[in-house]
UniProtKB/TrEMBL annotation:
<feature type="domain" description="HNH nuclease">
    <location>
        <begin position="117"/>
        <end position="182"/>
    </location>
</feature>
<dbReference type="GO" id="GO:0008270">
    <property type="term" value="F:zinc ion binding"/>
</dbReference>
<dbReference type="Pfam" id="PF01844">
    <property type="entry name" value="HNH"/>
</dbReference>
<dbReference type="InterPro" id="IPR003615">
    <property type="entry name" value="HNH_nuc"/>
</dbReference>
<dbReference type="GO" id="GO:0004519">
    <property type="term" value="F:endonuclease activity"/>
</dbReference>
<keyword id="KW-0378">Hydrolase</keyword>
<dbReference type="InterPro" id="IPR002711">
    <property type="entry name" value="HNH"/>
</dbReference>
<keyword id="KW-0540">Nuclease</keyword>
<dbReference type="GO" id="GO:0003676">
    <property type="term" value="F:nucleic acid binding"/>
</dbReference>
<feature type="region of interest" description="Disordered">
    <location>
        <begin position="27"/>
        <end position="57"/>
    </location>
</feature>
<keyword id="KW-0255">Endonuclease</keyword>
<protein>
    <submittedName>
        <fullName>HNH endonuclease</fullName>
    </submittedName>
</protein>
Length: 191
């Protein structure tokens, strides 16, 4: 006589191929515990197979062009809730995305060259020091710890303004206090 399937154990699911809810739940718990005990495994695996997985995903998306739209339509409320929670948890990223979008929009309007530049990269490159000629607060670092429109709020300034034919790229962007930037306007210095 055959040995009974040990329901509720990982072996019930893996070795005996049982797909009842009890066995599926036990296997799910086992996998969860393993992932928690081996957090680096997924990251290393992802890094090692990034190109292959990327190509595989691209091919699948091409073969299933309507899937994302159907999935979104079926899960609109959940998607909206997920976005709302992410926005609440990441206000700094939202501010950065909004700023980058505004720079891109203005540059496109003026038909200027646009490079996708994270503002924190520029702030850190400039050591948070205002680079505007004639700075109103010399030696005082710009900051994101103060609320806009505080005069010391960190902002990006175009050395050659977009209005004067400048581009939106790393070599034309510098850190500026908000007040220095607004005072400078579309000129090359405050003075």
């Amino acid at each position: 006589m055959a040995k009974p399937i040990p329901h509720g154990t990982p072996s019930g699911y893996v070795y005996h191929k049982c797909r009842c809810e009890i066995c599926k739940s036990a296997e799910s718990e086992r996998k969860k515990r393993w992932r928690e005990a081996n957090p680096d495994h997924r990251r290393k695996s992802w890094e090692a197979n990034k190109a292959r997985d990327s190509e595989k995903n691209r091919l699948w998306r091409e073969a299933n062009p309507d899937y994302r739209r159907r999935h979104y339509e079926a899960n609109k409320e959940k998607a909206a809730e997920d976005v709302r929670r992410w926005r609440e948890a990441n206000p700094d990223k939202i501010a950065d995305l909004r700023t980058r979008g505004n720079h891109r929009r203005r540059a496109l309007h003026r038909e200027a060259f646009i490079e996708d530049v994270p503002r924190l990269e520029i702030f850190e490159r400039d050591d948070w020091q205002c680079q505007v000629a004639g700075c109103l607060y010399p030696g005082v670092p710009a900051s994101l710890d103060v609320d806009w429109p505080n005069p010391l709020f960190a902002s990006l300034d175009h050395v050659i303004p977009l209005a004067c034919g400048g581009t939106h790229e790393r070599s034309n962007l510098v850190t500026a206090h908000l007040r220095c930037n607004l005072t400078k306007g579309a000129r090359e210095s405050i003075a």
